[in-house]
Write a structure and sequence with these properties.
The structure is a single chain. The protein has helices at about 5-15, 35-45, 110-120, and strands spanning about 20-25, 25-30, 55-60, 70-80, 85-90, 95-100, 120-125. Helix 3 links the parallel strand 6 and strand 7. It is an alpha/beta fold and about 160 residues long.
Length: about 160
Amino acid sequence: MEANITTNKLSARFSDSIIETHSHRGDETLVVRKQDIQDICQFLRDDTELLYNFMMDLTAVDYLGQEPRFEVVYHLYSLAFNRRIRIKTRVSESDCSVDSIVSLWPSANWFEREVYDLYGITFKGHPELRRILLYEDFQGHPLRKDYPIKKRQPLIGPNC
């Protein structure tokens, strides 16, 4: 199957940044170097032949036992061209951070906070990176595959 315009343009512009690509049933996925994520996302948003102006989702995956351990996954959509793209970047446990894309899509704010809260991945340049679902004294990150499921957390509330 021939690569679509998005993959072709990204491959031409960021050939050294792309680690791998694949397509399944029309869903294009590119795995890119984490240090280039902001430049790639800005290109996807601003290029007049692409216009990925809607950041649909941002999440993470924990591949416990592999290195790099995590992937941050971005799902983008072009309203003008009715196209979707999935961009992934790998994040190691030892340097568990990636650049924030909030400056490109303000809606990424809460998604990045959710990933930070549940996986412990930090987003450099985020305007207010703090927990969003769990309370501040919560210990650990419950979507990590090594999080102990029977772990007791500190009690919170007025009658603790």
